[in-house]
Design goal:
alpha/beta; Rossmann fold; 13 helices
Length: 281
């Protein structure tokens, strides 16, 4: 078997724990639109169900669907996500599953989410939009914690890249905070506001071409990460694309079952353990 010569990392759930930032931003966004509710409007299980459906790589899409679905009286988000999965996943699949004639606007929800995540002080720097919420926001990105040390990434001598749903502004914040930037030059980073968005397999093909790689390993914690690998295999027969699923991330307790059912090449309990294996340690 040819050696892996490019490892492509997702960020959230792989390099960084974002449960207390992105997930919480989604919950707070829904509450701002619908008001407080005992038990909340959006549970961890419901978010995991949407991610299992595919096409929900961005938490503001999860928040947008939760807002219009709950406001319209459709309380069972898990059932809606399951139906959306059979209709292509994502917001489009959810719209079809709900029988809506058109896709609701996500712009206002997205801007609210961005300000909650970035905080009043940094929303313009991170997203290019001025703060608009009546109450100052702390910036939930400050709650994130590293899942792997920068030195562990440094010890992996194989070429490295990033394919993430984060915007470039969001990626710069985490790279600066946790010291990953030196290992992932921006020309080897594809972000959600770039030319390709997961699960588009062309993003992996682009990175493979940029690195002149023949055997690519995508490391992710979500269904869309694996779908990107499948897409790359379909459009690029000249290279080998494999996937390793990391447990404990976006899919929660469902991760191992979901990855096993999809037939992924490898599953690792953590990124640190995967890096040890790749280094032959």
């Amino acid at each position: 078997m040819e050696a892996i010569d490019l490892v492509v990392f997702d960020v959230d759930g792989v390099l960084v724990d974002a449960h207390d930032s992105y997930d919480e931003a989604a919950r707070r966004t829904v509450e701002l639109f619908l008001g407080p509710r005992a038990g909340g409007w959006l549970s961890d299980d419901e978010m995991a169900a949407m991610r299992v459906a595919g096409g929900f790589n961005d938490e503001w899409d999860i928040a947008a669907v939760a807002v219009w679905a709950q406001a319209g009286g459709r309380r069972d988000l898990g059932a809606l996500a399951a139906a959306a999965k059979g209709l292509g996943g994502g917001v489009t699949g959810a719209v079809r599953a709900a029988g809506l004639a058109a896709e609701p606007s996500r712009d206002t929800v997205m801007k609210t989410f961005c300000e909650i995540y970035a905080g009043t002080a940094r929303v313009e720097e991170m997203y290019g939009i001025p703060p608009a919420l009546p109450e100052p926001q702390e910036g939930l990105w400050q709650r994130e914690r590293r899942l792997v040390e920068a030195a562990e990434v440094l010890l992996l001598r194989t070429r490295k890249a990033i394919y993430t749903g984060r915007t470039l502004g969001e990626l710069r914040v985490v790279a600066e905070r946790f010291g990953f930037g030196v290992h992932f030059p921006e020309n080897f980073c594809l972000t959600g506001d770039g030319p390709y968005r997961k699960p588009d397999g062309r993003g992996l093909q682009y990175l493979a071409q940029a690195a002149d790689a023949s055997h690519i390993l995508m490391v992710g914690d979500n269904v869309d990460d694996y779908l990107a690998v499948e897409g790359a295999r379909t459009i690029d027969k000249t290279r080998r694309y494999d996937f390793c699923g990391i447990l404990g991330g976006a899919l929660g307790d469902r991760a191992e079952d979901v990855f096993t059912e999809m037939g992924v090449e490898a599953i690792a309990p953590s990124t640190s353990e995967l890096l040890k294996w790749l280094r032959g340690a």
